[in-house]
Amino acid sequence: MASVPTTLLLAAPRGFCAGVDRAVLIVERALDAYGAPVYVRHEIVHNTHVVEDLRRKGAVFVEDENEVPEGAVIVFSAHGSPPEAFENSRRLEHTLVDATCPLVTKVHHEARRYARDGLDIVLIGHDGHQEVVGTMGQAPRSINLVETPEDVDMLPLAQDAEVAYITQTTLSMDETASVVDRLGERFENLRRPKHGDICYATQNRQDAIKELAEQSDLVLVVGSETSSNSKRMVEVARAHGTPAHLVDDVSELDEAWLDGIDTVGISSGASAPELLVEELVLWFTSRGTERVRTVMVVEEDVEFAMPSVLARKLAEVGEPLDEDHSRSA
Asked: What pTM value is reported for the model?
């Protein structure tokens, strides 16, 4: 049996961000208001436990809105969707509830504004990620996707082109910095966002991971492989010289990682329920870990409102709008 660490450090903030909390709550309240089934376009958030919990409650997940019967209730995921998806749902007379994170919506507005102004747009993001698909769809003729500084060199744009850049919200600032620097070197008329596109929760969790990495011998991040922000947190810890692993839940913990480890830092991605962190902590304390301490970097108090169509329906059926936002799988 591997040695058990004496200390656990818990990152704060960690886990659900306001956008994820809102998205999960939207599906749950839609089930209250309309009854099952409620269809959800794409995984509402990138966490297997959250998706399975909602599936048990009556949510039906689809990848294409055209799979949903005419007139049914559909929720669009937090990652954002391209305009044609909304058009298809309107054609099919769906009751559409948009759970897109407001911070992603901000990037969509930027993309459409830049396109109207005639600018060439560079989107920094990961090809195929659902958020990137949704953002690319806002102005497909104007947006060029890049992931690395080398991609910037390959862009078919003139040095004096009017270029603006936008960013996938779940990337790390460290990851985008070299790409942004290369854009600034190549394009003399580069337009930058007035406010960065990296979401507050992504940045806060990465800042907490940096602090955790400095104080820990090993970092564990609770999150699913499909979660971009969770994987970035692992990368941030490793970049600070600390071994780090992504685990979907306690069952994925490899005891061999604990050999010679005295202090373990634990955090979770923005789409991971707190219950999964609690189960991981219990695994350690039940085996003899004596100290559990929180490493507080910043407090979060952001909340986003319910979509108006859902708020009206809840009022119509006599369901209270507010409820405890704590989530567990």
From this structure: 0.90
